[in-house]
Amino acid sequence: MELTPPPGPASRGAARILSGLLEARTGQILSESRAWRMETALKPVLRAHGLADMDALATRLVGYKDSHLENEVVNALLNNESSFFRDLQIFDMISRHILPRVQEERSNRVLRVWSAGCSTGQEVYSLAIQFSNDVARWRGWRIEILATDISSAAIEQAKSGIFSQMDVQRGLAVGDLIKWFEPSGDDWRANSRLRQMIDFRTDNLFDARAPIGEYDLLLCRNVLLYFTPERRQTVLRLLARHSHPRSVLLLGAGETVIGHSEDFIPHPDFRGGYGRRIATAGSEPLRKVV
Ligand SMILES: C[S@@+](CC[C@H](N)C(=O)[O-])C[C@H]1O[C@@H](n2cnc3c(N)ncnc32)[C@H](O)[C@@H]1O
Q1: What are phi and psi of 110, to 5 degrees?
Q2: Taking CB atoms and a 6 Å cutoff, what residues make up the pocket around ligand 1?
Q3: 72-84: per-residue pLDDT in tens?
Q4: Ligand 1 nearest-atom number relative to CA 115
Q5: In whole angstroms, what is the distance from residue 180 CA to residue 135 CA?
Q6: Checking CA distances to 140, which of 122, 151, 225, 228 falls within 20 to 30 Å?
């Protein structure tokens, strides 16, 4: 494990400025463990700009309005942790229970998914793999997958579809790796068919422009964790605006809508999923599946 000493007194002001920038731009509050590793996370930025330390970086940011440098700092400080088929039982529930239900209810043969806070793409590539492995079931359907993240660096990587050996070893079955990825130097690249299934866009949840209309399945996993309660409410209201009464919302394992949303409630059928409150007041009650 990498250990960096906590910022000394001289750097505390700088740490405050930099974490303040992160919060102002993204809503994310630095967790204690990430604040501890701030200097390590910023090392590539310091090196690229010939800056000696965090103090010099903070001074540069305060002295000049340099939006490129601000972007680099924000990208470096965001927690982009992700992996393929993260929380496998959720993906199992998606393919075995949630999607068949959506399929049953949809007459127009269009299925829309939005991953909000998709990071480097492992989550949506996992979904694309599930759809592609089940091609017979989805024949004749249009599958639309929108994947957004505030980090331009994460979105660029996601679009490229390139993952290191270490990335693919985290959660990807060998059969799926061979079937859907191609070697790319020392790395692996998702094949063009998989890449074309996903519309990746840089977008801020607090100024969201990318989502259009309503989505059947919404994923916002491991994103809300570092927002204040007020910001969680704001994001959940946004997700509600882009959902319909039968949509299913999935959050990360440590996240909940309880106490943060008037629109969503724990889904009566899909454990760990959330449904719109209005659905339960509708004429057709949700059936028990899981
Ligand atoms: C820990 S990752 C989760 C990735 C993926 N959903 C998963 O569970 O594996 C959280 C992502 O949320 C993104 N994020 C943080 N604040 C955001 C905001 N205001 N708007 C959009 N994305 C944001 C971060 O850039 C990061 O990629």
Answers
A1: -125, 130
A2: 26-28, 78-82, 86, 117-119, 123, 149-151, 154, 204-206, 221-223, 252
A3: 999 999 999 999 9
A4: 6
A5: 13
A6: 122
- Return the domain boundaries, the chain: 9-77, 88-281
Per-residue DSSP letter, 143: E
44 or 6, which is more confident? 44
Residue 99, helix vs strand vs coil? helix
Which residues have CB under 8 Å from 150's CB, separation 6+?
25, 26, 74, 78, 117, 202, 203, 204, 205
Question: What local confidence, expressed as pLDDT, does residue 205 receive?
Answer: 98
Return the CATH architecture of domain 9-77: Orthogonal Bundle (1.10)
DSSP-derived secondary structure letter, 215: E
Which of 19, 75, 149, 225 best tests ligand 1's pocket when mutated (most atoms within 8 Å of CB)? Answer: 149
When pLDDT is cut at 50, 70 and 90, the band that residue 289 belongs to is very low
Best residue for ligand 1 mutational test, from 31, 80, 119 (most atoms within 8 Å of Cβ)? 119
CATH 3.30.465.10 assigned to domain 88-281? The reply is no
Q: Ligand 1 atom 12: the closest Cα is on which residue?
A: 117
Distance CA(82)–CA(90), nearest Å, equals 14
